[in-house]
Amino acid sequence: MARILLCSAPLTGHVAPMLAIGSRLAEDGADVAILTGTRFEDRALRAGLRFHALPPTCDYDDTKLGERFPGRERRPAFLRSLFDAEQMFANLLADQYHAVAKAVEAEGADTVIAENLFMGALPLIGSELDVRPKLFAVCVSPLMSTSVDTAPFGPGLPPSTGPLGRVRNRALNAGARSIVMRRAQAIATRRTREVIGEDPACFLLDWPLHADDVFVLTTPAFEYPRTDVGDRLSFVGPILPAAPRDWPTPPWWDRLGTDRPVVLVTQGTLDNHDLGTLIEPTVDALADSDTLVVVATGGRPVDSLRRTAANVVVTEFVPFSLLLPHVDVMVTNGGWGGVHFALSHGVPLVVAGSTEDKAEIGARVARSGAGVRIRSGSPSPAAVRRAVTEVLADTRYGVRARALADDLACHDATKSISRRVREVAAST
């Protein structure tokens, strides 16, 4: 029987797919535990997994990141992403690694499965194969790894695979490592030396490529082609939560039966501390339009919204799997899970996000043809209205979104991951 330790940074969008993977592995006969933030202990136990808590030094509540990382929320989008790379990920690497070693010993684990931003896995790839557990990486975000075919991860630049494009990519990647990500890499190097006495084996964002296998939670049609790393990637499709069985239908649900286009707008559950960045501009943009606008605040109180109109309904939470069959276009800041929810239902998108990985996700939406990217994390109402109008008027966006839905439906991520992990375990 495989004895498996899952590892995740304490971020809801990262933990949720890892819990789903763990639950499937347990159902298939593996012995599974998870190492993550204390806030997720009950969810882990309900999923049938044993739980190991990250130590307080690298645990935090992702609904209160401003408290745990002072000054983070005051930084503009690009600088906030750099801050996260340095302080939320690289700087916590050593304590995460110690926690992994402790949990592996306690569990007798022969396999570690870590999501791609759990940097405590970085020191593991420098260990000899015969002295460390098998290591699998799960990419719960767009691929961040360096490639000759892509620009550096972050600003959302499109790929370029021709000779001149590859020259561009090499120059930009070199600059990203030596200038933009220099401090983050230096922190990762220092923390890695603390725990194994050696430099890390690779650039910190590239560690998944050095795992024994890499599971990418999307389809190749939604990712950039990478001729130099493609054979190391297993595209398994997204992991999306099922609809709750006992969700009470709200009073406004009957309004979805309208002949008017239905527009869903959300800022997700992480970057929603200021609803004025996208939700309120969308309400203003569509207030006098012939649409029904459904606002999902991602857990923020309904009264946090300072804009309203007769054609707007507001809810803190709504199961997307139930709502999206009624939606004609989704306006989002570009969360990985939300975008895949829309695509899995064939719903075209308007994406306007600039924090975390959202510029990259928006660029992938635009390249896929399934939506429009607004190159701002806080667009004007006029920009939102133009984008929504374009997506509703041009049927090609819906056609492409439905094609991606058919592609995504061919994948079963947890089944594929469980099968592969158990195959490797059985062969060793």
Automatic annotation (TrEMBL):
Domain annotation Erythromycin biosynthesis protein CIII-like C-terminal: ranges: 282-421
Record domain Glycosyltransferase family 28 N-terminal: where: 13-120
SUPFAM superfamilies named in the record: UDP-Glycosyltransferase/glycogen phosphorylase (SSF53756)
Cited InterPro entries: EryCIII-like_C, Glycosyltransferase_28, GlycoTrans_28_N, UDP_glucos_trans
Protein name, entry field: Glycosyltransferase
Organism encoding this protein: Rhodococcus gannanensis
